[in-house]
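ugh finaly. both done.
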Amino acid sequence: QVQLVESGGGLVQAGGSLRLSCAASGSIFSISAMGWYRQAPGKQRELVAAITNGGRTNYVDSLKGRFTISRDNAKNTVYLQMNSLKPEDTAVYYCWANGYWGQGTQVTVSS
């Protein structure tokens, strides 16, 4: 079992920044990749970014350049730095690791 706890969501004005954190615990030895997904109201959950143990990253094309995923293996934590936020980035952001999900953290971007 892997437990994931997200933090860092909140309300921000358009153009602002937020950094999300996700701390993993439990059977962390089994984690090979971690990532972030998001789900906006009325929409399907979609991949935002992912990162492997070795640091290889993958981003959805539309977010490249604004969002950056990083990982601290010593702290078993993955981060999502979000810059130049837009109202359409409003969603619940979920941490993911090897099929496990966090509870989600709300990000709201006001115009």
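ok and the 2nd:
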Amino acid sequence: QVRLVESGGGSVQPGDSLRLSCKASGINFSLFTMAWYRRAPGKERELVAKITSGGETEYSDSVKGRFAISRDNVRRTLFLQMNEPRPGDTAMYYCQTNFRNRDYYGQGTQVTVSS
């Protein structure tokens, strides 16, 4: 059974840093592309960043240069380092992977950026 558990969200001020974590179980973590998605109130879910099993990364234009995705295959954990967050980054953040042609998401962790 695939399980993804996010943590690390909270309320921060613009310019603060925050690191999200996602602990995975039920899959051979090191072999899978992992991603972070987010959904802001009234908006559709959008891809924030992804990282392949080989460590290649991809970012949405809105976070490129500010956020960094990484993974620790030994700890089966995915990270999202959020630097210089903005109010527009306020959203529920979800960890995601695709296993046997099915998308799995965690329960999400809320990030609120406001002054």
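summary for the 2nd one i guess: The two ends are 40 Å apart (CA to CA).
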